[in-house]
Amino acid sequence: MSSDLKRQRLHPFSLPFSFIAHAKGFLIPIALFLLVKNDESSWEIWAALFLIPTMIVETWRYMSLRYWIEDDELIVKQGVIQKTERHVPLARIQTIDSTQNFLERLFGVVEVRVETAGSGDAEAHLKVLSLKARDELRRKVFTGRSEAATAAKAAAGEAGSEPLTAGASAASHEDQRESDFEPLARVSVKELILLGLSPGRGLAILAGLIGIATQFQILSDEDYALLYDWTQTNMASEILMDVAIGLVLLGLVFGLSVMSVFLRLFDFRLDRRGSEFRTQCGLFTRHSTTIPAGRIQFVSIQASPALRIFKKRLIKIRTAGARGKGDGAALTRQWLLPVVAEERVPKLVRSLVPGCDFQGEQQIDWQPLAQGAARRSARKAFVGGLLVCTPAAILWSSWGSSVLPWIAPLFLVLIPLYEWLAARAFGWAHTDFGLVTREGVFGKRMALVPSSRVQTVAVGASPFDRRWRMARLEVDTAGTRIGHRARIPYLERPVAEALAEVLTRNAEASSKNTGPYRRLAAT
Amino acid sequence: MDRDPDPTESGARLPEPLDLFADEPLPSKPADTAPVEASPMPLALEAPPPTEPPTPGGWPEDSQRHPLPDRAVGAHRIANMVFAGPASLVVCAVWVLHSLDIFALGLDDLVVTLIGSVLILFFLWRALHWPAVTHRHRAWRLTPEVLDIWEGVLFRRVISVPRTRVQHTEVASGPIQRSHDLATLSVYTAGEELGEIALHGLEVRTADAIRDSLLNREEDHVV
Chain A contact for B222, CB < 8 A? Predict the structure, then answer.
């Protein structure tokens, strides 16, 4: 068959690259070990030495990989002692993603991940292939896929007028020529900086760094004392000192955030070819991900305060497929478009989810939470604040200084107030295309779950919920987690139950393609 | 179960709701009885004209809420004692060692006795009484469209799995369950948080019947 591919090996550079990849895993522990420098513990050195043979065996096993295409299947054989042979029907292959880190770009090789619809890791992780080999693999896979599809159709007796040339034209159509891709968006440097100006990410990184610094005592007590003395002698006014420190910290937080955004999302491009989207991004490591529109399970539209000011939005998606844990490619796949003008969002969402008639946030008939929701939410935060302040007050007062005037207003007033506002800001709606929720006071988030993507629905109630005749609805979807779930707290119980009922029925109906969808009637 | 057809406070007008949380626990039955008569769906939403006649409601697909068999409580207790027993013995051993001054905790004798007895009481209560409590709140229901599972005592929950979302199922039995003729049915979907939903302590016959019923679907599974 034209799609057959003879036995292929990995590119020779795979050997050093694989070795480096394994060594990277040890770099951080080794670096930390050297930093700590404990004379008593030499057992770590011995442990490290034992790990080298493991690395060698792993690398040897990796180099034993062979792949080829035969009989409409991609076959990957690997292993020396424990041999595995994996057959992947071409029809099941959803995407072929490729990644290039800095070194790989230098040498013109690429990591390829072949993914299918099922859960779990990529079916085949080929590290590394030459660009030519990658293109050939893609071509053969997509030729084979369309041939199989044509053959299946012929067998089913449909559309008998599909000439043989259809296979050839399909092959050339699937050929990944750049000209086939219609560019949709490109994120500029300014927009990336805007994205970076969200304090959350920077704070997390800074907290991590401080944690490492204190854990491994990189700065000793004398260093801190010296720092303090220096500030005392060099700054006349103490208030100025505090302001300066505050600015430095703020700068650090935002700087780290912008840096991390740049590393991952530099030169973000979104292209489209038919019903497939392709994203490319990355500064040193360049990720290229294909996202068939039909694979999208969940759309998350977010806006930090900075983005809101400039009327931009951020779109993240959940797609079914590999559930990479910290896998670079999987982490990138969640991004559909990090920064986009808000006017463009409805049209994009409509093309992302076939059959979805999303006209924009304003057109949706948003429903609020139950009547006592805001009060309950604020009360819960207040009680939580009491639980924090009471031991803090007791502990700190015994040390002489009083921290209560500082933390009490925060935990007892500001946070409950924020929770109250957040509960008021929460909105949900059951539309013809599925469930939408929106939330957030300063930064906003919107979740969209098409009916056909609803997996499981759970309605739960804590003892407090039961007392107030409220319940919480959770909708489960497929795909890697993106930190945003479709859930509605503090719903009136009958509403939660009816909504769960409608969602599951529509989920069934959508897969059987029987209509009409039933809608939750609302005034 | 009370039904509330009036408009709710927030203004959303609803069809007749189904009370998914029965406030009173179900009376437990000695065992799953023979096939129950099929009954129509208790919830009346505006139903579109059905495109195909509904599957005749034979057990287990009878849209009735079924509790777990009573002997599941006993099996659960035995399984718990496998851990609680040794744990209690360890506490006793520590107490004995402490009173014989072999192993000294830096605490008063009375305090150690108190803590030890509280711990043991807690282990025993958790192992022996709690299963009966959870049993009262566990149930399942299979309709032509959905599998519902009730669970939870303090934090109650009902999980609804549309049947076309079931990717695969698994019926498994531990040694204690086998001796009671019980099994655990696990239902897998493509979802993340609720990708695996388990019903522990079903009769083997029931678990197999539900599994067969779920797998009788011809349609492609939807992801």
Answer: yes
Residues composing chain A: 523
Q: Number of folded domains in chain B?
A: 2
- Cβ distance B21 to A471 less than 8 Å, yes or no, reads yes
Number of H-type helices and E-type strands within chain A: 17, 20
Q: Are A460 and B152 an interchain contact pair (Cβ–Cβ within 8 Å)?
A: yes
Please answer yes or no on whether A460 and B165 come within 8 Å at the CB atom: no
Q: How far is A485 from chain B (nearest CA, A)?
A: 10
Tokens of A243: 């302001």
Asked whether residue B120 is assigned to any structural domain, the reply reads yes
Q: What is the DSSP string of A501-520?
A: HHHHHHHHHHHHT--PPP--
B124 lies in the same domain as B150? no
Strand order in the sheet with A124-130: A124-130, A109-116, A93-100, A286-292, A276-281, A269-273, A182-186
Task: Give yes or no for B209 touching A (CB within 8 A).
Answer: no
User: How large is the ipTM?
Assistant: 0.72
Rounded Cα gap, residues A318 and A300, in angstroms: 8
Q: Mind listing the pLDDT tens digit of every residue in chain B (223 residues)?
A: 344 444 444 444 443 344 556 554 444 444 444 443 333 333 433 344 444 444 555 778 888 889 999 999 999 999 999 999 999 999 998 888 888 877 777 778 888 889 899 999 999 999 999 999 999 999 999 998 899 999 999 999 999 999 888 887 888 888 999 999 999 999 988 888 888 899 999 999 999 899 888 876 544 444 4
What does pTM read for this prediction? Answer: 0.72
Nearest to B9 among A371, A463, A466 (CB): A371
H or E stretch at A239: helix A238-265
Task: Using the 3D structure, point to which of B91, B116, B133 is the last residue of a domain.
Answer: B133
Closest in B4, B15, B191 to A521, CB measured: B15
- pLDDT digits 0-9 by tens, A162-192: 333 333 333 333 444 556 778 888 998 888 8
Residue range of the domain that includes B82: 71-133
B105 falls within a domain: yes
Q: Which of B108, B133, B158 is the endpoint of a domain?
A: B133
Q: Are the C-beta atoms of A300 and A335 separated by less than 8 Å? A: no
